[in-house]
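queue> pop job 88
queue> type: inverse folding (structure -> sequence)
queue> payload:
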């Protein structure tokens, strides 16, 4: 009995000695497991973040690729469409707004375009009013490789039969080109007179203001069209560092102005597209020099008899067009001298001159691109305009 009791005491002592050691080991194991869990959870979070980044990158790459494909498709469609000159755009491509209709028999391509402008006026000493000013239709056709037709028909203020009777409807240009090469081509029909830059680019959707400058309304007959024939072309001379220089010219024989001018200008001196008021024909032309892209200077000249007695009107114009990033600076000066026989002296002015300068600033806030103002437009733009007339 004593031996058994002694053995039991030894086992109890050994058990009590081992138990604290095992408890410490278990605590260490628990701490190790918890640390491993935290490490794995951290690694899992890192992997999940990486997966999310990869998915976002993949989505971005897909979006960029889709946008690139859309852009390529638009360019391809545009490339396939630019096969006729756009009516009313003075040798600008159809991609600026005309719709090309292909002939199913492959004989020609037709371009149909146009524009309309609406204005609101609230001037001193006058009633405020809305004005539906212009409605213009452009029609052109590439008849074959060498023959091209352009036309522009304009209706102002609803036409001559509108209420009030102060509107008009007229052909502003309708001519045929016979294309020879870049340097020389023939043109005949109702032609926009190449006197100054504004008359050639007068369309409202090419301008930043629908109101035309005074020199283009009073001094130079507004939207000056003449019946006649002539030549146009362009060439690319190289002078020193000006490797991108382009020179364009137009010169025509036309019926010319008549004696309907007044003290305020030559607006009333436009001749008929049907008959000339004298046997003398007028000569008019413009030379435009572009030393490099975005800059142009133009020189225009006019000479023509306006009556049977041989008295003539002589004119000259200087115009410039310059771009500096988002800024455009446009200027034009015009001068006309009117001869008058001593036996027919009147109190009308014998010379006219005028000028204007215009500064445009084109901009677009990017945050508006995804709004109703920007969606659906290739190149939405706001423009601040300042103009000075003299």
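queue> result:
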């Amino acid at each position: 009995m004593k031996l058994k009791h002694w053995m039991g005491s030894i086992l109890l002592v050994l058990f009590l000695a081992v138990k604290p050691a095992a408890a410490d080991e278990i605590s260490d194991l628990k701490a190790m497991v918890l640390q491993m869990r935290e490490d794995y959870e951290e690694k899992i979070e890192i992997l999940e973040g990486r997966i999310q980044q990869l998915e976002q990158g993949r989505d971005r790459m897909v979006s960029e690729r889709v946008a690139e494909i859309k852009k390529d498709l638009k360019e391809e469609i545009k490339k396939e469409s630019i096969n006729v000159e756009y009516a009313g755009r003075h040798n600008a491509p159809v991609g600026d707004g005309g719709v090309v209709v292909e002939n199913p028999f492959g004989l020609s391509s037709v371009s149909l375009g146009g524009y309309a402008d609406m204005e609101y006026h609230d001037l001193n000493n006058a009633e405020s009013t809305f004005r539906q000013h212009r409605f213009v239709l452009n029609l052109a056709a590439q008849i074959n490789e060498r023959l091209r037709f352009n036309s522009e028909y304009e209706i102002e203020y609803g036409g001559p039969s509108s209420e009030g009777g102060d509107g008009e409807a007229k052909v502003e240009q309708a001519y045929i080109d016979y294309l020879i090469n870049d340097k020389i081509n023939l043109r005949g029909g109702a032609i926009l007179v190449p006197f100054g830059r504004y008359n050639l680019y007068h369309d409202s959707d090419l301008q930043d203001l629908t109101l035309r400058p005074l020199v283009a309304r009073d001094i130079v007959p507004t939207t000056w069209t003449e019946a006649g024939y002539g030549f146009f072309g362009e060439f690319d001379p190289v002078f020193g560092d000006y490797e991108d220089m382009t020179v364009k010219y137009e010169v025509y024989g036309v019926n010319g102005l008549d004696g309907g001018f007044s003290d305020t200008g030559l607006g009333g001196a436009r001749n008929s597209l049907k008959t000339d008021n004298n046997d003398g024909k007028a000569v008019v032309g413009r030379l435009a020099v572009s030393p490099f892209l975005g800059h142009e200077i133009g020189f225009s000249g006019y000479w023509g008899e306006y009556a049977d007695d041989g008295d003539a009107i002589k004119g000259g114009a200087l115009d410039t067009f310059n771009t500096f990033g988002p800024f455009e600076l446009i200027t034009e000066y015009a001068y006309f001298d009117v001869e008058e026989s001593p036996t027919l002296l009147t109190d009308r002015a014998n010379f006219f001159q005028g000028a204007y300068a215009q500064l445009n600033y084109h901009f677009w806030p990017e945050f508006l691109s995804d709004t109703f103002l920007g969606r659906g437009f290739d190149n939405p733009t706001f423009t601040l305009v300042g103009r000075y007339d003299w």
